[in-house]
Amino acid sequence: MSFFNRDDKEEKKDQESFQNGGYASPEEYEGNDMTDYGYRDPSQDDEEHIDLQSKREEIEDALHDIRMILRSDGGDIELVDITDDNIVKVRLLGHCVGCGAAQMTMQGIVESILVDAVPGVQGVEAVM
């Protein structure tokens, strides 16, 4: 037994794991929830990236329509970020910056169009 009261078999397994980069393989914890051991299936990253990319494209399409409205008054809008809780962060540009009606535009036009046009969008937040 080693210092940590483990048998030689467990000790050898840990040494092999350390020599192979220190990561646990899925086979080592078969039948367990792998997230408990810090293991994350890399294909999940690809799926999340695709989902985020398609959501970003849907938002950009909706923003295109909003831009036509804002540009008629000398303004514009830019997509900044999409949060994990589906809040779309945008930046108002041009004449929209400092305009007294900007808040009303954000809620009355931008937010209502994005929430209706893109499934899952929970709201819109203006950033500087």
Give a written overview of the molecule.
The protein has 128 residues and is of the alpha+beta class. The protein is 45% helix and 16% strand. The protein has three helices and three strands. It has a three-stranded mixed β-sheet. Strand 1 (75-82) and strand 2 form a beta hairpin. The termini are far apart.
Q: What order do the helices and strands come in, and which of them pair?
A:
Elements (H helix, E strand, L loop, with lengths): L7 H12 L22 H30 L3 E8 L4 E8 L7 H16 L5 E4 L2
Parallel strand pairs: 2-3
Antiparallel strand pairs: 1-2
Helix pairs in contact: 2-3
Helix content: 40-55%
N-to-C order of helices and strands:
HHEEHE
Q: If strands are numbered along the chain, what order do they take across the biggest sheet?
A: 1-2-3
Number of strands: 3
Main pleated sheet: 3 strands, mixed
* Percentage of residues in DSSP E strands: 15-25%
SS content category:
alpha+beta
Number of helices: 3
Radius of gyration: 25 Å
Q: Indicate the low-confidence ranges by residue numbers.
A: none
> What separation lies between the terminal Cα atoms?
61 Å
The backbone outline, from C-alpha atoms, is elongated
What is the averaged pLDDT score? 78
